[in-house]
Amino acid sequence: MNSSTNGRQARVGMGIAILALLLSIFALGAAWTTVHSSQEFQPASQGSLKYILNRGEIRAAVVPIPPLVSIDPNTKEVSGYAVDLLNAIASQAKLRVTYSVADWGNMGTELTSGRSDVICSGVFLTVDRAKEFAFSMPYSYWGIVAVVRKEGGLVSNKADLYKPGLRVAALVGEAGLDFAKHTLQKAIVMPMSGSDLTQPMSEVLAGRADVAFGDLATCKRFVAEHSEVQLLFEGNPLNVFSAGFMLRQGDEAFRQFLDIGLQQLNLSGEMERLEAKYEPQKSWLSTPRPWQASTGR
Amino acid sequence: MHYEWDFSVVWQFRGALLSGLLTTLWLTLLSAFFGLVGGVALALCLTNRVATIRIPATLAVELIRAIPLPVALVYLYYVGPTLAGITLPSFTTSVLVFSVNFAAFAADVFRGSIAAIPRSHIDAAAALGMSRLMVLRRVVFAEAIRRSFPALNALLVSLLKLTSLAALINTPELVHVSGLIVSERPRVFEVYTAMAALYLAVIVPIVYLLRRLERSRWFALEPIGN
Question: Is the Cβ pair B2, A228 closer than 8 Å?
């Protein structure tokens, strides 16, 4: 009696377990088919360009940083200076670009996992990043500036940054943090680990930090929204970094493809036209044309 | 500390916030459904007397419970393509991870509830001439579901809040969408206040409804008429 009960319970249990397993396999299979019907899997270690040309598609991950990359939260439409540059390069090669959203924390993993071919955003070219990733030629140059409270602020000029005990907020992985760590020896540096570029500025707003560092465009947007804070060093940035497309390390053919595309857009004046479209006030310094560079522009 | 609030950003992006909220709810619903199905199956394996079924199930449950959700999400989403060539969309990955996690915890709840059923109830049902399947359905399941209901409710509410972790792999749920809004208009305090209000507006009624259901005749442990 007992053994027959056990046997029946076991069979019922197994039956339900198999049903659940089949359901899961079905769900996985459906997802797999959906994904793989539209894209070919590409091992992360191999060069992207031949896969891109086979697919006819560049898979770009975007991290919002207006005006380089904007994502309309209502429509999810991706636009911006960097997006237009990539679209223009792709259209010359008769390729389409598909965009997926990433953030500052996981953009590198987007590349190494093979999910994306390129990070299209205002990624600064830093030595630390260059150890892990490749970059296209720069398409813009960005100043690092500071945000402080208007009332009771401890910083009004560059000398004030060296005050002992100054609380400095900056985002991990961003150039402002490198600057603070290497230059401001007496400051209390507060590294922020989020992916929101305005997080250090919110620390100033909340009174937990005396000064926040960030790129000029982001700081300007923040200050425009919050009358309690002000921008410092706009005309004389603390440091300048270049931004470009980020790629997998060793992805030389694709890098060359992007570099040549950017060069053509620069020489044709298209880059200048797009700069004027997205940032008439010039929050960044544009890429000089060769003849302008040689004349000391 | 002086601060000028400006909630126009919330109104400007109300559609995006609602779309994020709907994704959160859909993610919760799907994960809870698949999690419950998986949980029942796992619970039957956990309570099985056959060791070859019980031991792997126990190991699976313990393993799943030991892995933090963010790790599971990021691992499946990013390492999956590299290791196995599996490139799942972020929403599917989230549903899969939350379902499996929910199933592991629900299975433990079910297992406890099944174990708590007095042996006399099963014997009485057998004495009345019920078949084994009937005993399983009318006594074991019926009682286990009633006993599990309060704990499952807590798990469901917890799941709803945990879905915010799906933002880590860019699933367009409420937290992720809020991040996008902040990147467009950096009014963090207002956007996060709205986000908290939306979570509250959804969770409080759900908790209330589930409490009512707990006391209803369908889920109350005490038989009707007692």
Answer: yes
Are residues A120 and A166 located together in one domain of the fold?
A: no
Domain count along chain A: 2
Question: How many residue contacts between A and B have a Cβ separation below 8 Å?
Answer: 150
Domains in chain B: ranges and CATH: 23-215 (1.10.3720.10)
CB contact (8 A) between residue B50 and residue A6: yes
* 118-157 in chain A: CB under 8 A from chain B: 151
Same domain, yes or no, for A131 and A250? yes
Query: Which amino acid type is present at position A89?
Result: I
Rounded distance between C-alpha atoms, residue A83 and residue B170, angstroms: 19
CB–CB contact B184 A31 (8 Å): no
* A136 and A164 in a common domain: no
Q: Which domain holds residue A214?
A: 143-240
Q: Is residue A260 part of a domain?
A: yes
Q: Which residues of A touch B27 (CB under 8 A)?
A: none
Let me know whether A219 and A275 are in one domain.
no
Closest CA in chain A for residue B81: A113
Residues A99 and A229 in one domain: no
pLDDT, tens only, A182-205: 888 889 999 887 778 899 999 999
pLDDT of residue A239: 86
How many other CB atoms are there within 10 angstroms of residue A289's CB atom? 15
- Minimal Cβ distance to B170: which of A24, A102, A218: A102
CB contact under 8 A, A64 and B184: yes
Number of neighbours of residue A51 by Cβ within 10 angstroms: 20
Q: Output A249 or A283, whichever has higher pLDDT.
A: A249
Rounded to two decimals, the pTM is: 0.78
- The complex's ipTM works out to 0.72
Given this model, what pLDDT does residue A292 score? 61
Determine contact: A37 vs chain B, CB below 8 A: no
- The answer to whether the CB atoms of B38 and A221 lie below 8 A apart is no
Distance CA A44, CA B224 (A): 62
Residue in B78, B132, B182 nearest the CB of A198: B182
A52 lies in the same domain as A186: no
